[in-house]
Design a protein that fits this description.
about 40% helix, Serine Threonine Protein Phosphatase 5, Tetratricopeptide repeat, Transferase(Phosphotransferase), domain 1, 24 helices, six-stranded antiparallel beta sheet, alpha+beta
Amino acid sequence: MTVIACPEPGCPGVIEDGYCTETGLAYPPPASGVASDGTAPGGPGGPEPINAIPATTNAIGGGGRPISPQAMPASAGPTRSSSRGVAGGSVRSRPSTPSGGRRRGLGAGIVQVPELPAPDPTARLLTSPSVPEHRRFCPRGHPVGRARGGRPGRTVGFCGECQAPFSFVPALRAGDTIGGYEIAGALAHGGQGWIYLARDRSVADDFWVVLKGLLDEGDPDARAAAIAERRFLATVDHPGIVKIFTFVEHGGTGYIVMEYVGGTSLRDLLKDRRAAAGRTDPLPAHLAISYILAVLPAFTYLHRAGLVFCDFKPDNVMLSRDTVKLIDLGAVRHLDQQGGAVYGTKGYQAPEVSETGPSLASDLYTVGRTLAALLLDFRGNTSTYRHSIPPAADHPALARYDSLYRFLVKATAVHPDDRFVSAEEMHDELEGVLREVGADVAGRPFRSTSRRFTGDAHPTGRAADGTPAGPPWVVLPVLLVDDSDPAAIALARLPAVNAEELEPLLTAAGIDGVEVRLRLIRAQVEAGRFGRARDLLDALESDDPWEWRAAYYRGMINLAEGDTAAARGFFDRVYAQAPGELAPKLALAHAAEADGDLASAERLYNVVSSTDDTFTSAAFGLARVRAAVGDRVGAVAAYRRVAPASAAYVDARAALVRLLGTTTVAGTPSRDDLAEAARVLETLDLDGIRRVELTRELLTAAVDLIEPGPLAPGDDITIAGRPLRGPDLRLGLEQVYRQAARLAGSEAERHRLVQEANRIRPWTLV
């Protein structure tokens, strides 16, 4: 069998049954008029969103309530295709590249997500189908069927405003057959009519489908137009989206026939949790993120096809065993569609939709709002916080996971250009957040590879003597070139030249663009030519105020110049725009440490090193700041995070010996500390002068602790083979000094060490 690799750059997946095993996207992609950079054509304008009529199983068109259709101008589409974000920073779009490191299944291979049982389809049938009066509206959106004078509202009649007929009684009953589909009963009532469960006996007696009635059954022309308009839904083909099979007519009403998805909607899952707890019971962060992460490939598929979902919310996501699927396509529109009703739900719909119509940005807004609804005890989501996220301090999940809070703030920004630019980008960042949350839940790290930054740039973040290892760029991750940029290949082939030679070299090569300009800036920063770097940064931000990578370089410059407060501000902007990345957190931790804010540095170092243990400089930084505030136990735990396979392991163990066995700002060692330090020293694979120096430090500290000191001598502890007694330790030190003298690099140093050996040796009667 021939294995077909996914054609997307950097994707490790293969094509199976027409879909990539990593991203879930169909290949070849559907024809859609998507631009070469992966963005879709412009979106239409639209009416103001209003409260939705909740939809349930497989509702299509029932998610939100439209206001009267009106002609809507086609907009120019997204204002940017390359980058977009909040003022002072942005996240670079990679529209043609799927998220790196994606894995199949719920939880992305990071956390465990329990499988949900698939209920008997007939168990969901309504025994007495009815529509609550507060949800009764005519096809034009006017309230109808309301109680008056003590009499219940009519279920069948005509609207007093527009004379449109209405009926809230199911037109189909169990046993009716339509186009070969045998009706089993009604499942729910949505914004466009009743939703029915049916059998397709031409396939099998237990092959279930869902029928959804269309509006305008009283107008044959409107009905025909509605069916023709929605025919494109049958071409939507993605494993994460309910499949539309066909359209049928019966008794003057048109019906959409679609796949039955057995399971539980996210809305029902929240209702069940609330019922069991007797109060609002949001989902744990790792579960909520996993469910949203699983639906984002479906949004990628729709957006590449030039479609927007429009009315995403917990009602429209079905959980079935270990899969997640979008079940409501009734509000799906072409981005360039003009006129027609726009569906949306108050509390989920983006604020600009009423003026500019739906867009990719407004779709991603609904994803962010849905994640918030799953995570939070979200009171005020349709009033006080209709277009904002509540304070993090008010919600445990947001208070615990700052990255998650920042993700929600970006996803639901009021201005479209301040949100994520694509579903792929949103997936990347959310998966990064899940790694952080998953590491906290599982108590172990989850390593990953970023497409925006290199990994840890320095194993310890400090030189061997504990002083800074050099300028900031020595210890900070390096920004990677966007591999979708036309100049990426040319930049990769450039020879190594200094900052002065690079600009004429690039000019001679005839390449230009954002990546080229960033390469020039990086060269100037690394050469210490900060004035020239700032000029280039000013020009770049003038052309593109959303380019967040400029803020990263500005932070490096300010950190090098000692303006730690300004550096923190710039790195914080980067963190806000890439909340799932570890590099901005590490940079911010270094800046906070340099600024003297050890509490903030400790928190950030802890997040980075616990999420990905290959960032060993974060573990060293965590140990430094904990030791600085006297937290010896915490500092020891930080050094122990460095894995044995790491290149920094020996350095971490040596630092652990010093911390445990010597007096530092973290405190004075106990007998147990000395014993542990001696044990660690014995296991260390050190050669030559490093072992000699570390042994000398430990023996010297031990002598100081018992002659006289807080510790009593004894034979229960040995250091370098010497019991914890003054004369024995001094003999050990004498031997170590003589070993160091033999390894000395100069005659003067050799004489000094011999003199120290003579001085330290204990008095004898010889």
